[in-house]
Amino acid sequence: MMQQYVILHHDHPQVHWDLMLEEDGVLKTWRLPVPPEIDPASDETSLDLTAESLPDHRLVYLEYEGPVSGERGTVTRWDRGSFTLLEKKEGLYVALLTGEELAGRVTLKKTDQENQWDLNYTPFF
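Above: the chain's sequence. Below: its structure in token form.
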């Protein structure tokens, strides 16, 4: 079964993007400083970002846009789609994303820093 993902633009406490992957009834969530997109006009073939792991979020965020409870800003959907998990083990996720904005491979690898992950996005084009 295809699992769902969503990337939300979140304006609190500062502008960032939340990558959320469906797993076991929750959304595994990472905060990204910028959206994982590559300008088609550039020569870049992949993108590397530092991601911060956040607590699991409820599945409602797959569909939700609007104010976040507790006066924690507003979320708007930047991308959504399905993903296939290619590999998952302690400190590593490798997934193929197929969404409205993104189509490619995402690798999330835990670093030695608490809650810090390295994210690589490589589009299919």
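The chain has a mean pLDDT of 96.
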